[in-house]
Amino acid sequence: MNTNVVCPKCKADNCTYNDTCIKCDTPLVGDEVRILDKTADLWNAFLKLTDGHPDERNEFKLCVHRMQDILSARMAAKLTEGIFKTFRDSVKNAK
Q1: Nearest CA to 34 among 23, 24, 21, 19?
Q2: Could you tell me the maximum CA-CA distance found in the chain, to the nearest angstrom?
Q3: Which of 82, 84, 79, 63 is CA-nearest to residue 30?
Q4: SS3 14
Q5: 81: nearest Cα among 92, 95, 66
Q6: What pLDDT does residue 95 have?
Q7: E strands, 2-94, in order
Q8: For residue 44, which phi and psi values (nearest 5 degrees)?
Q9: Cβ neighbours of 70 (radius 10 Å)
Q10: Percentage of the chain with pLDDT > 90?
């Protein structure tokens, strides 16, 4: 199992826990991944709340999943450039 991340700029091997390349300081983790991690923090913090309506937990979970869906779609569009059309693509084509 490969536990390294290859830098897209300089092709250096990096540990999967690095946020930036050890050789050229290029970001290895996008903003979407950082935000995605925060959705887990939101969920864990929400679970610590007490005295709520019985439906709140499920409703909050659905909202967290929706945020994760949006972030995942953004990451997929970046990783598979040209396959998924983005808003930026539609604006370029409209001109």
Answers
A1: 19
A2: 54
A3: 79
A4: strand
A5: 92
A6: 65
A7: 4-6, 13-15
A8: -65, -40
A9: 13
A10: 34
C-beta neighbour count of 84 within 10 angstroms: 13
Cβ atoms of 24 and 9 closer than 8 Å: yes
The Cα–Cα gap between 80 and 78 comes to 6
Distance separating alpha carbons of residues 45 and 83, to the nearest angstrom: 36
DSSP state of 13: E
Give me the pLDDT at residue 16, please.
Answer: 67
36 half-sphere exposure, CB direction, 13 A CA radius: 13
User: pLDDT tens-digit profile of 26-65?
Assistant: 777 778 878 888 999 999 999 999 989 999 999 999 999 9
